[in-house]
Write a structure and sequence with these properties.
Number of domains: 1
Distance between the termini: 51 Å
Number of strands: 0
Low-confidence stretches: none
Order of helices and strands: HHHHHHHH
Helix content: over 70%
Radius of gyration: 16 Å
Largest sheet: none
Structural class: mainly alpha
Mean pLDDT: 78
């Protein structure tokens, strides 16, 4: 089933209404869908480099709006829908640890993990379940999701097809290094 979903997402990246499909996948991935939007984002930008910034923007906005939906699941429906999503993806152990850390490091967790391939739905649902400040959650989501998708767009825009295989193969490393740089910047600003 997962392979069919993946193939469908790839096929939609070439569809004339691909921006709508990307926004749907990006929205859904933030709260319940298993396939990350990068699977569509990368081929769409390669095919339409002149629209790279628009594509990254659509992906970011839809992901953040979907993040609010995931937050609502955690806030209002954690015992039913939220727990079902966590169980569906086998994230019980990770979620329990995440929720424990979240109470102490909430903002930093959203900033760091929102850029990595850790399922964003885990972050959004846990944020709602912890009743984390909604404004801070929204601003952190905009910063991290935007940074992640615009980083991919920038790499593909400036380096084109040769960078595609590198990004697809090393997405975790690329976004983790970028997240570390962003966090270091925040730390420097806060303590200098």
């Amino acid at each position: 089933m997962l392979r069919r979903l993946y193939d469908w997402v790839i096929a939609m990246s070439e569809h004339p209404k691909s921006l709508w499909a990307l926004s749907g996948v990006s929205f859904a991935e933030s709260s319940f869908f298993p396939i990350p939007p990068d699977v569509m984002l990368i081929p769409m930008i390669i095919a339409q480099r002149a629209r790279a910034w628009l594509i990254a923007g659509v992906c970011t906005v839809a992901s953040v709006v979907g993040g609010f939906f995931g937050y609502a699941i955690g806030f209002f429906f954690f015992e039913t829908i939220g727990q079902w999503v966590i169980d569906l993806y086998g994230l019980q152990t990770g979620f329990a640890q995440y929720q424990e850390q979240f109470n102490k490091w909430g903002l930093w967790i959203i900033l760091i993990k929102g850029m990595t391939p850790i399922p964003y739905k885990l972050i959004t649902i846990a944020s709602g379940a912890a009743h984390f400040d909604l404004l801070v959650f929204g601003l952190a989501s905009i910063a991290t999701r935007g940074a992640r998708f615009y980083l991919v767009a920038a790499l593909l825009y400036f380096f084109g097809e040769p960078i595609r295989s590198f990004v697809e193969k090393h997405l975790t490393v690329v976004t983790t290094v970028f997240a570390a740089v962003v966090v270091a910047g925040f730390v420097l600003v806060a303590y200098l």
